[in-house]
């Protein structure tokens, strides 16, 4: 069983998504690293820009077979050939709605044209897959005849397409079974009824040996079937390994970043909460047995387990979270910390590592050792381009850098990033400013949330200068991430 990933084509057709050539090449590399067998790089007929992007992917010399999506016209195949792809995904109308209304032709002409195109593509050395568009609403006898003719003409495989997410599992099983009897069969499912994963698995049970999917399930309307969900369902539920699952989380985050489509917290496999435990009962059980409340270890998909603290937290969870930071409290002090954590949770606040450490420090009456400090900050704006420079102390060394931006705060943030380099490759998840006092000398409070992999922290700083408050909050949050045990690079 293998995957054809169509993130770069069908996924990009999601509203508001547009990937640059560099982003497509980066995602293609990650897909190849994960062992995805086929990568649909785009649709060559879209235009010169898209052809340039597809060529960027073909130039990567991937192990994966790189393809282009083509309509049922010879010129599309010629354009794909110009991009240097290994194969084409030929889409031809299958349902009468598409044959008669969309294309304005007949069933007989569709079959004849498909045979001609397959032979043409094969004569030019291309791997060929034929997709029957809207196949889930097609007359099954005609779909079977069309796909059979494609295979007889030399197509490497045919594909059952639930183009509009219309199909139910029983119908999918029936149709895919008939196509699989003809030859190698793929499946392409959408999630309009919330059945994309189910229909993909049913297709495999019916004989399909290639699943079309997108990373994070992005795509038109409700999206395509999610590659990571099908991969893990097959691996965990049926013992069928399709890709290197340890690469899935990194791949999901990169696609979310490139597309601007964030991962839902409750998203299976790659969502923030997929391996997070807050309930005292669940946390206690997880500490006693990793598998108590998880179907498979988070390391399977390149993740870490998180014990989340909030209103449902128990002593075991708080104690374990403190132990991760090397803190061990007396029973009395631990009880006080647990009470304060629950108080914060009751107010609807997410209790991050920063909050927990601050509470523990307050209860113990002592400060913590820092690894990163802000020594100096200067920022200028006005008529000139806003610029800023920072001087940071990191593990006994000093780092100095400057930056420019759309404003003094942005310039200062760029300076901090430049000073740290790869030391803290973090993501700014949220940035929030509140005025604490009124008037022209108002003090502002800046709250930021940063993450690095599965670790997340928040920090707050107040100052009359919003730029300084912002940098202090960012530096404090990065320091928290470094203190959690992730090593920093040597200072210059």
Give an overview of the whole structure.
The protein is an alpha/beta fold and 492 residues long. The protein contains 16 helices and 16 strands. The protein has an eight-stranded parallel β-barrel, surrounded by eight helices. Strands 11-12-13 form a three-stranded antiparallel β-sheet. The protein has a three-stranded antiparallel β-sheet with strand order 14-15-16. β5, α6 and β6 form a beta-alpha-beta unit. α11 crosses α12 and α13 crosses α14. The two termini are 49 Å apart.
Low-confidence stretches: 437-441, 486-492
**On the 0-100 scale, what is the average pLDDT?**
88
CATH architectural designation of the largest domain:
Alpha-Beta Barrel
CATH topology of the largest domain: TIM Barrel
Q: Percent of residues in beta strands?
A: 15-25%
CATH class of the largest domain: Alpha Beta
Reported for the largest beta sheet, the result is: 8 strands, parallel, barrel
Strand order of the largest sheet: 1-2-3-4-5-6-7-8
Q: How does the overall form come out from the CA principal axes?
A: elongated
Radius of gyration: 27 Å
Helix content: 25-40%
Number of strands: 16
Number of helices: 16
CATH superfamily of the largest domain: Aldolase class I
Number of domains as seen in the coordinates:
3
* Intertermini distance: 49 Å
> Helix/strand-derived class?
alpha/beta
């Amino acid at each position: 069983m293998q995957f054809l990933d169509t993130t770069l084509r069908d996924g990009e057709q999601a509203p508001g998504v547009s990937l640059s050539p560099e982003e497509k090449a980066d995602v293609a590399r990650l897909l190849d690293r994960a062992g995805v067998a086929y990568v649909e790089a785009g649709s060559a007929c879209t235009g010169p820009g898209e052809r340039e992007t597809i060529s960027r992917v073909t130039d990567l010399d991937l192990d994966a077979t790189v393809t282009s999506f083509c309509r049922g016209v010879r010129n599309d195949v010629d354009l794909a050939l110009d991009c240097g792809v290994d194969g084409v995904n030929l889409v031809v109308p299958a349902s009468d709605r598409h044959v008669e209304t969309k294309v304005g032709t007949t069933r007989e002409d569709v079959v004849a044209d498909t045979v001609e195109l397959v032979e043409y593509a094969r004569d030019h050395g291309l791997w060929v897959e034929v997709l029957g568009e809207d196949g889930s609403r097609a007359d099954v006898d005609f779909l079977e005849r069309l796909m059979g003719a494609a295979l007889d003409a030399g197509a490497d495989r045919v594909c059952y397409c639930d183009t509009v997410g219309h199909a139910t599992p029983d119908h999918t099983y029936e149709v895919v079974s008939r196509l699989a009897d003809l030859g190698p069969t793929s499946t392409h499912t959408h999630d309009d009824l919330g059945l994309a994963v189910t229909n993909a698995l049913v297709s495999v049970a019916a004989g399909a040996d290639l699943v079309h999917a997108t990373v994070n399930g992005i795509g038109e309307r409700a999206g395509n079937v999610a590659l990571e969900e099908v991969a893990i369902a097959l691996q965990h539920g049926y013992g069928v390994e399709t890709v290197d699952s340890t690469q899935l989380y990194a791949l999901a985050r990169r696609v979310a970043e490139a597309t601007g489509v964030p991962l839902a917290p409750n998203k299976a496999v790659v969502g923030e909460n997929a391996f997070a435990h807050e309930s005292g009962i669940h946390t206690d059980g997880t500490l006693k047995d990793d598998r108590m409340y998880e179907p498979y270890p988070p390391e399977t998909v390149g993740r870490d387990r998180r014990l989340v603290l909030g209103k449902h937290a128990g002593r075991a969870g708080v104690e374990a979270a403190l132990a991760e930071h090397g803190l061990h409290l007396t029973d009395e002090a631990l009880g006080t910390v647990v009470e304060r954590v629950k108080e914060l949770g009751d107010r609807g606040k997410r209790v991050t590592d920063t909050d927990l450490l601050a509470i523990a420090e307050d209860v113990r009456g002592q400060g913590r050792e820092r690894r990163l400090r802000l020594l100096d900050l200067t920022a200028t704006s006005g008529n000139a381009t806003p610029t800023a420079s920072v001087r940071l102390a990191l593990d006994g060394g000093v780092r100095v850098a400057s930056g420019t931006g759309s404003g003094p705060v942005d310039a200062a943030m760029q300076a901090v990033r430049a000073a740290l380099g790869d030391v803290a490759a973090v993501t700014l998840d949220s940035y929030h400013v509140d005025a604490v006092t009124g008037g022209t000398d108002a003090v502002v409070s800046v709250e930021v949330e940063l993450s690095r992999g599965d670790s997340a922290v928040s920090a707050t700083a107040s100052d009359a200068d919003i730029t300084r408050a912002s940098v202090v909050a960012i530096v404090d949050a990065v320091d928290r991430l470094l203190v959690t045990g992730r090593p920093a690079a040597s200072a210059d």
